[in-house]
Amino acid sequence: MKSLISAVITLGMLLPLTAFAESMSAEGNWRTIDDETGEAKSIVRIWNDGGELKGEIVELLNPTEPNPVCTECKGSRRNQPLVGLNIIWGLEQDGDEWVDGNILDPQNGKEYSAQLKVTEGGSQLEVRGYLGFALIGRTQTWHRVD
Description:
- It is built from one helix and eight strands, in the order αββββββββ.
- The protein has one helix at about 1-25; strands spanning about 30-35, 40-50, 50-60, 85-95, 95-105, 110-120, 125-130, 135-145.
- It is globular and about 40 Å long.
- About 20% of the residues are buried.
């Protein structure tokens, strides 16, 4: 009986830790917020593909035209629909951050080095894009979508 009570107490202590770890995951759907205008732009789905974090646009919020494409993108992304476009790739976990990846700005077609960090108990994602050094770049704060 004593071991059953001990097991129940241990399980009760581990469940909140599991929920916390899941909420601190970068995986899931995120509402992107433009760092210059403060306007919500899209919903991006982020997933882990064999240790590499990737992300694609799954919805545009208030698009200016129906079914927009990435006219400024280079290579295989040029003129591809924005919905379904892979805009995050190559990120690898380093402690509580994801680093050494890339992010595409579909507005101007430019690719930047990227790093991500989940904050605010898992409800926000700091997305940093930069050229060269992480100190020189822009950070957006995205919000988790349930």
